[in-house]
């Protein structure tokens, strides 16, 4: 197991470096955008005095390099800072009420996004693996073709289009599910689940094709190998051959694809959240980019990057653990 | 209401309080039920601080539900008392005495009185203040508490509209000494008490049991406003019955909503207008004849038809709209006439002229298209407009007030003086046409302190005429407020046209059907 630990530590170190680079890139990119927080928040009322006053309050008059290292210093001590929006109000009212840090602002939104990702994963992962196994089993049959065509056309359509189609059929024509996913704290779990179902189904349609086709391809790839031939010659049923003999060896690539799609469920749900008015991190991120609220944008990006890094790491670990040859190297 | 002259109303606002109390709807409105509305204009930056409010979601949540102001503009545009019961002005309109309503409590139990008024107004002052209502409050030189329920304001110069200004949605009444707490938790004297508020997501409020408006307003048990900034999502939510009302209908899909028998569309023309200001201190716009040529070179009707898809009214280059008291609706309408445009160019000593027009959709939806329509119509009059597309980001800082000719919008103001002194008075920061005309300025100052309604009508009429004939702002169209409500909610015949959603006061004025 020693080498697994080494890999984990190596990956974590590399991950930290990646996060640093991501934060620099984001900081530079947001600063390159025209307009800044003060101008955006004031809109038409942006008189030079008001803009200067907000910039002074928020420290936006400092050179970018200073601001970046101030921010980085805070993050290294576990302080994601205060969002410009909240700091701006604090300067209005004269005090900073504790609950306005970036962390406090993001936490409930992130929890919502994780909830949606989980609901989607619970539907999508078993569905696509089952579909993939069945497609491999009955490859080139009508079922295989149909499954491929359906999933491929759903992955090829833009997300908002899928969302509107689902809304049309499941909310407007047959009012089964609500088209508005305005979940909030303190909502009963069943209601929360019902409200999240349409966005979860939309995301399922988006991620299924990838996972299903990878499952199918990985299994079919193995079906030509001698040990499968052996299993078949032993007289095992095709289903047993695939599930017991082929699938375990095909797990590594499948897990990789699942991890990639799970990361997408956390970081790429912006459009779906907007269409269904789901209060997740994606909406917060877009709102913050719009008003150039750099501390929130940075924190969101760090979360997104961390999600990618951790999920990929998990995928690698899982594929090592699922493969005896990698588990017991010579 | 017609029996009382505006002068009487202004001088002795006693009647206003009575009117406010008796302002009962004709139809019996039932108490109970819930109003769920999907509203745009929400941000994660929202808070209960009235100084920062700028869009519908917070206006409807704060002034519309949780907070009150001293005065209130009724749906028909008249002024009535809210936390002030009545008011009196001195003859020069410089000293105003407000009598406050007695027995009013904040949601935390604190009694409302003169100290709250003074402290709530002082919030807008201070050098560092970013309050949009700062210019209004700055005009008050002295605030004096006479009794616990009487406050006297002394203004730097006479202003007959002062009670109107006190209805501004930025100027909310907070409890003195607890302002920070009130901003953090939303503690006001309004009809509804905050139950939960998640900035940029949703606001829920329940009816405050013993409110001074009693049975005359605030008919719902609970109000829920859901932030839906996306047009399609807002429409879907209404179509599937998850919300009862939405603001800002997308004109392109309006027909679909009209076809639904369970929905009603409300459309009102207010003061919201789209403009093309030119800096009249800069050549060639310093020449009144060039400005006149442009006024005849723009096809106003075409813009209403194509940019607003008919949901609006042609403008006459004056910012005073149908929601204003002294709107000169009978003034002769400017119309597209390329020959006249050529004529005025000749007067200016020119055969043709080349002009850059900066536009971006940040100014208003369809501003770039409008600029291109202008370009096409003006070319027949010898005016060659070059449309410069500006980035939406930083438009208000880098283009507006800086480029000699650009696109812009105004949501309008409740009173003539407020509008003019915001954007047309010589030397004010938002004077986007550098407008400085001696006669106009003279009228502005005299009308401001004039308490006689007829004389004011005359003066404001002349000012609108001056702007139409030589003003530096082209105002081709007034855009309607279009919103939709379903059958579960009943709304009065007349809805306010100062702002969307019955001036943001639907929770107060509408009821369950």
**Mean of residue pLDDT values of chain B:** 89
Low-confidence stretches of chain A: 94-99
What share of the residues of chain B lie within helices?
Answer: 25-40%
Along the chain, the helix and strand elements of chain A come as HHHHHHHHHHHHHHH
Low-pLDDT stretches of chain B are 1-26
Number of extended strands of chain A:
0
Largest interface: A-B, 50 and 45 residues
How many discrete domains of chain A? Answer: 2
Architecture overview:
The complex is a heterodimer of chains A (330) and B (513). In chain A, helix 13 runs antiparallel to helix 14. Chain A is an all-alpha fold. Chain A is built from 15 helices and no strands. Chain A is globular, with a radius of gyration of 24 Å. The longest helix of chain A has 36 residues, at 102-137. Mean pLDDT of chain A is 85; it is low at 94-99. Chain A folds into two domains: 1-100 and 291-330, no CATH class; 110-220 and 249-290, no CATH class. By secondary structure, chain B is α+β, with helices and mostly antiparallel strands. Chain B has helices at 6-11, 14-22, 56-66, 114-122, 134-138, 162-165, 179-185, 231-239, 254-259, 288-297, 300-306, 338-347, 367-379, 395-398, 416-423, 438-448, 453-470, 500-503, 506-509, and strands spanning 34-39, 71-73, 79-81, 84-89, 95-100, 140-147, 150-155, 192-198, 202-207, 222-227, 245-246, 263-277, 312-314, 353-359, 383-389, 408-410, 473-486, 489-490, 511-512. In chain B, strands 1, 8, 9, 10, 11, 12, 13, 16 and 17 form a nine-stranded mixed β-sheet that branches. In chain B, strands 4-5-7-6 form a four-stranded antiparallel β-sheet. In chain B, strands 2-3 form a two-stranded antiparallel sheet. In chain B, strand 4 (84-89) and strand 5 (95-100) form a beta hairpin. In chain B, helix 10 runs antiparallel to helix 12 and helix 16 (438-448) runs antiparallel to helix 17. The radius of gyration of chain B is 23 Å and the shape is globular. The two termini of chain B are 27 Å apart. The relative contact order of chain B is 0.16. The chains are: A mainly alpha (330), B alpha+beta (513). Chains A and B meet through helix 2, helix 3, helix 5, helix 8 and helix 13 of A and helix 7, helix 8 and helix 14 of B.
């Amino acid at each position: 197991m020693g080498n697994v630990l080494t890999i984990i530590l190596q990956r974590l170190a590399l991950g930290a470096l990646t996060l640093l680079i991501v934060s620099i890139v984001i900081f530079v990119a947001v600063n390159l955008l025209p307009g800044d927080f003060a101008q955006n928040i004031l809109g038409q009322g942006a008189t030079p005095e008001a803009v200067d006053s907000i910039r002074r309050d928020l420290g936006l008059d400092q050179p970018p390099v200073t601001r970046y290292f101030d921010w980085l210093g805070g993050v290294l001590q576990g302080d994601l800072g205060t969002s410009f929006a909240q700091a701006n109000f604090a300067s209005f009212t004269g005090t900073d009420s504790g609950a306005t840090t970036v962390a406090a602002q993001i936490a409930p939104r992130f929890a919502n996004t994780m909830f949606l990702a989980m609901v989607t994963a619970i539907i999508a992962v078993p569905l696509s693996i089952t579909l993939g196994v069945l497609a491999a089993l009955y490859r080139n049959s009508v079922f295989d073709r149909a499954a491929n065509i359906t999933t491929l056309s759903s992955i090829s359509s833009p997300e908002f289009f899928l969302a509107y189609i689902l809304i049309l059929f499941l909310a407007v024509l047959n009012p089964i599910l609500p088209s508005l996913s305005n979940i909030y704290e303190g909502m009963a779990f069943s209601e929360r689940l019902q409200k999240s179902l349409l966005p979860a189904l939309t995301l399922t349609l988006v991620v299924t094709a990838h996972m299903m086709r990878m499952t199918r391809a990985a299994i079919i790839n193995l079906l030509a190998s001698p040990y499968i031939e052996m299993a078949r010659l032993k007289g095992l049923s095709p289903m047993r051959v695939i599930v017991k003999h082929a699938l375990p060896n095909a797990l590594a690539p499948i897990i990789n694809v699942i991890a990639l799609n799970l990361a997408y469920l956390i970081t790429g749900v912006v459009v779906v959240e907007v269409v269904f008015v789901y209060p997740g991190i994606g909406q917060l991120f877009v709102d913050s980019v719009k008003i150039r609220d750099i501390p929130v944008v940075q924190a969101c990006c760090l979360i997104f990057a961390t999600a990618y890094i951790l999920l990929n790491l998990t995928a690698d670990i899982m594929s090592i653990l699922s493969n005896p040859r990698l588990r017991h190297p010579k | 209401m017609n029996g009382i002259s505006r002068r009487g109303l202004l001088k002795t606002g006693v009647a206003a309080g009575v009117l406010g109390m008796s302002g009962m709807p004709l139809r019996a409105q039932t108490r109970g039920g819930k109003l769920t509305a999907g509203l745009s204009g929400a941000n994660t930056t929202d808070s209960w601080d009235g100084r920062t409010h700028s869009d519908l979601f917070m206006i409807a949540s704060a002034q519309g539900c949780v907070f009150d102001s001293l005065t209130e503009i009724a749906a028909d545009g008249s002024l009535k008392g809210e936390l002030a019961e009545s008011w009196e002005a001195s003859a020069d309109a410089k000293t105003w005495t407000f009598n406050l309503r007695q027995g009013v409590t904040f949601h935390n139990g604190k009694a409302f009185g003169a100290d709250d008024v003074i402290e709530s107004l002082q919030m807008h002052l201070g050098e560092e203040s970013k309050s949009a209502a700062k210019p209004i409050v700055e005009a008050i030189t002295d605030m004096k508490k006479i009794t616990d329920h009487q406050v006297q304001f002394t203004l730097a110069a006479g202003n007959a509209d002062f009670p109107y200004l006190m209805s501004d949605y930025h100027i909310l009444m907070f409890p003195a000494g607890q302002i920070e707490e009130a901003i953090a938790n939303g503690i006001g004297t309004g009809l509804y008490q905050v139950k939960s508020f998640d900035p940029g997501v949703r606001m829920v409020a329940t009816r405050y049991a013993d409110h001074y408006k009693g049975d005359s307003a605030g008919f719902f048990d609970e109000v829920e406003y859901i932030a839906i900034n996306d047009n399609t999502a807002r429409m879907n939510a209404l179509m599937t019955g998850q919300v009862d009302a939405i603001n800002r209908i997308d004109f392109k899909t309006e027909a679909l909503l009209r076809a639904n028998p369970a929905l009603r569309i409300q459309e009102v023309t207010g003061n919201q207008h789209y403009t093309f200001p030119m800096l009249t201190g800069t050549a060639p716009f310093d020449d009144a004849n060039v400005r006149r040529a442009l006024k005849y070179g723009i096809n106003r009707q075409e813009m209403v038809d194509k940019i607003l898809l008919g949901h609006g009214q042609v403008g006459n280059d004056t910012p005073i709209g149908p929601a204003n008291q002294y709107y000169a609706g009978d003034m002769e309408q400017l119309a597209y006439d390329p020959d006249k445009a050529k004529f005025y160019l000749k007067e200016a000593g020119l055969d043709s002229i080349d002009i850059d027009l900066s536009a971006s959709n940040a100014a208003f939806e369809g501003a770039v298209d409008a600029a291109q329509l202008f370009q096409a119509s003006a070319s027949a009059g010898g005016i060659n407009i070059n449309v410069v597309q500006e980035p939406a980001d930083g438009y208000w800082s880098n283009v507006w007030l800086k480029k000699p000719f650009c696109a812009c919008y105004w949501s309008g103001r409740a009173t003539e003086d407020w509008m003019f002194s915001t954007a047309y008075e010589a030397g004010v920061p938002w004077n986007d046409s550098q407008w400085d005309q001696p006669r106009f300025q003279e009228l502005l100052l005299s009308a401001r302190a004039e308490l006689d309604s007829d004389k004011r009508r005359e003066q404001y009429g002349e000012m609108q005429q001056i702007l139409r004939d030589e003003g530096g702002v082209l105002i081709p169209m007034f855009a309607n407020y279009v919103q939709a409500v379903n059958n579960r909610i009943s709304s009065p015949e007349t809805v306010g046209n100062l702002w969307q959603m019955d001036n943001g006061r639907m929770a107060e004025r509408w009821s369950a059907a």
